[in-house]
Amino acid sequence: xxxxxxxxxxxxxxxxxxxxxxxxxxxxxxxxxxxxxxxxxxxxxxxxxxxxxxxxxxxxxxxxxxxxxxxxxxxxxxxxxxxxxxxxxxxxxxxxxxxxxxxxxxxxxxxxxxxxxxxxxxxxxxxxxxxxxxxxxxxxxxxxxxxxxxxxxxxxxxxxxxxxxxxxxxxxxxxxxxxxxxxxxxxxxxxxxxxxxxxxxxxxxxxxxxxxxxxxxxxxxxxxxxxxxxxxxxxxxxxxxxxxxxxxxxxxxxxxxxxxxxxxxxxxxxxxxxxxxxxxxxxxxxxxxxxxxxxxxxxxxxxxxxxxxxxxxxxxxxxxxxxxxxxxxxxxxxxxxxxxxxxxxxxxxxxxxxxxxxxxxxxxxxxxxxxxxxxxxxxxxxxxxxxxxxxxxxxxxxxxxxxxxxxxxx
Length: 410
Known about the structure:
alpha/beta, 6-stranded parallel β-sheet
């Protein structure tokens, strides 16, 4: 086989999936570029022609020409991924799975695929493609994580930038060394935080537009690396956004460097107002910190805050919703991610709740933060579900929006 036609599919839920003849249902400002798929494409050998299909922007044609199909997915898209794979395999087209869900549940996933890429693709892809070309594709491929030094640049030319938020996307680090019980990211990366050489990150930044989003799990996890990176970014004149740990707000030197280098917004995992709840989640970096002071210090440097809270932990009672909403209004955070606690396969949370018999729903399509799939300890299922909806609704009311705008102007 001289050249291999490889199609990499990103399945979408029914809410956002584009069907034939339809237009994308979600505004591009809320749709992020498929950076992980672009890295997979960059890792392909030279004899592979890769096409990426994102079901949020393009309807999937099951009759398309392909020698090999790849499907990368998280837990909530597993049913759709399995249905897609079954259709292509019925045509005789081999299918490879990758991503979080097949990494954590490879024995389940292999029932619908010819091979499973366990872990990161870059270290597995060359062997998988060679085995496919030679007709000896194996069921499971597991290699150590990729070396980030010399990492191939993502194949951005395979995606239409007009379909996604008007910023450029990149990674400077991967993983996180903390062990929060609910976090599938840290589990996927083996609780290891890795960094790219700062010079390579800066060289990539020079090829990108002014506004950039670091798709890192925790950009400041390695303080010395973050200091070096931010210092090198100061002359670039970028405006950037990312995800960072709460500790950044209390690190004067690092916070000042982040602001000087162009940081204008951060996603911060507050998770819960309760120290007991934080201990239950093993979210130790947040313990004992003044959340109001953290937001204030970030705002003082011109950095907006997207506050992430998760509801349904074992310490949560019905009062948690009003108390958390009041904190967000009083602290004047700009945006909110409020989710129902979701025990993803592969995490300690899933193992613990499953062992206790508290997970009552294993329809993976419900593992999207919008469904309650386990029995909370001090809340009913209905109270948890309605409470999260209430927080989101109240936070986004005209009164709340006006209040935040008034405070920001003062």
